[in-house]
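User: Can you help me understand a structure? I only have the sequence.
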Amino acid sequence: MKHFLPSALLVLASLVPGLAAAQGGPSAADRATARRLATEGQIALKKGDYDTAADRFQRANDLLAAPTFLVRLARARVGQGRLVEAYEIYRKIIRDGVEPDAPEPFKRALTEAKQEVKAVEPRLAWVSVNVVGPNPSEVEVQLNNAVIPSAALGAQRPVDPGTLKARATAEGYHPA
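Assistant: Let's start by predicting it. Here is the structure, written out as C-alpha cells:
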C-alpha cells in the first residue's frame, strides 16, 4: 500500500487542473466569475439594492482582488449606511495604491476612492466609551452587539450614524 500513495496524489493533481492555477493566481473561470458578479453588483447598485451589490462586489473581490471591485463595494456600504466600513475600504484602496503600469480602470478607481473618502469622512460619528469601576481589561463592552476591545476603551471610535446600544458586563457587577 505504501507504493500507491505518491501515484494517487499524482493522479489527483492531474484530475484537478485548477489546483495549480489556485497556487499561481485566479483561474480563467475565477476571473470570468468575478466579472459576472461585478456586473450583477453594478446592476444592483444602480437599482439601490445595496445588500445584493455589496455581496456581489465582495465575492468578486474575493475571487480577484481589484480596486475597481473595492470602490464599488465601498459605494454599496455607503448605501447600506455602513460608513465606517466604506471609509476603511476607501482608505485601503488609497493605501495600497496602484502600479504605474496598472490598467486605466484601476487608476480611475484609485482617483475615485481619493475623492469619495472625503465625502464619507465627515459623515462618520465618533464615540468614546469609558468604563468606571472595574479594571477595563476585566470588562466586556459591546456597542450594537459588537465587542469593543479593551484597548479601545476611552479612545474615540468611529461608528455608523444612528442609534447605539452599549452594554458592559464584568464579574461581580450588574450588567449596565
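Now, to help you interpret it: The two ends are 63 Å apart (CA to CA). The helical segments are 4-15, 18-24, 28-47, 50-63, 67-80, 83-96, 104-120. Let me know which part you'd like to focus on.
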